[in-house]
Amino acid sequence: MFGTASKAFFHLLAGTPPLKKLASRYGMRRRASFARRFIAGETTAEAIAAAKTIEGAGMQITLDHLGESLGSLAQADTATREYIDIVKAVVDSGIGRNISLKLTQLGLDVDKASCVDNLRRVLDKATPAGFFIRLDMEGSKYTEVTLEIFETLWGLGYRELGVVLQSALYRTEEDLPRILRLGARVRLVKGAYKEPKTIAHQEKHDVDGAYARQVKILMASGNDPAFATHDPSMHALALQFAGERGIASDKYEFQLLYGVRRDLQRQLVAGGSRVRIYIPFGREWFPYFMRRLGERPANVRSVVASILDERAAGR
Ligand SMILES: Cc1cc2nc3c(=O)[nH]c(=O)nc-3n(C[C@H](O)[C@H](O)[C@H](O)COP(=O)(O)OP(=O)(O)OC[C@H]3O[C@@H](n4cnc5c(N)ncnc54)[C@H](O)[C@@H]3O)c2cc1C
Known about the structure:
Elements: H1 4-14, H2 17-26, H3 44-56, E1 60-65, H4 73-93, E2 98-101, H5 112-126, E3 132-135, H6 143-155, E4 161-166, H7 172-182, E5 185-189, H8 204-221, E6 226-228, H9 232-245, E7 253-257, H10 262-270, E8 275-281, H11 286-295, H12 297-312
Parallel strand pairs: 1-2, 1-8, 2-3, 3-4, 4-5, 5-6, 6-7, 7-8
Flavin-adenine dinucleotide is lined by residues 1, 136-137, 164, 166, 189-193, 228-231, 255-257, 260-261, 278, 292, 295-296, 299.
């Protein structure tokens, strides 16, 4: 994991309009453009094509239509309709029925009740069609409200719905048993957002320690847990723990991001693990892309090289 300072730096850049303009100009326009390493495309058709390739390689998928922090109910309504269209397109295509979404994309910043209504509109189309919907976890400002909305919907009987917990946050030590008591499905991540030291571990060593502890808790008492990490030492720990406890490989899964550590993706599949790839797509790819840069310095070098190549070639 890249340091906290660089996460902060990339979050700052993500909010910089001239950079966004430059990136949008060069990032996705050609097959080899730099953002395509991490983003499957701007359209649903491109995401479905990527999903078919991934499924052909023995992995499962979850689709994420990029977008977050929408500022009006009209925008949230549009995002909701787009998700409903994606549900239809996924059914028609025959790929796995699994979607990840962010509550701020459905209007959480504008009005909580409308956000819940929008989520229910998506769920009421997706659930009868056999979809599983995962609520991604955003910055800590949204942790409690995301869990509350999740619990409300769980109470209303929506069971094909899962949540994400971030090991970097201290509060996850309590949130994990809270979600486990429901018997709900958890995706465990280290955490992609810059958080202050009053609420979150700052050192990689401490985040890893929390992640390792929580992997064991989820393995022992979770319902179909998902370990979403590219960290081979965490994969090894999970596999070892499962081996010791006799937990079959179909009782949990590893999740990795599209375009990240494809070597590990293949290795895990070859070793008999269940692997799901998170496939982001859509026009609003810039904040997601910046979070991926913030996680690894080498990504920045390859992006800069690619921009310079394209400019030099006058494309
Ligand atoms: C399927 C999935 C869903 C996620 N959903 C959420 C979510 O809802 N909320 C949230 O806060 N976070 C989410 N994340 C992001 C997560 O919190 C981390 O920020 C991210 O996965 C990097 O941490 P890591 O666990 O891979 O381990 P790290 O210790 O950061 O990295 C381990 C190794 O992975 C490789 N690596 C990690 N990141 C990259 C990268 N960007 N590019 C290239 N190589 C890389 C490097 O080889 C690195 O040494 C998700 C991650 C995955 C895989």
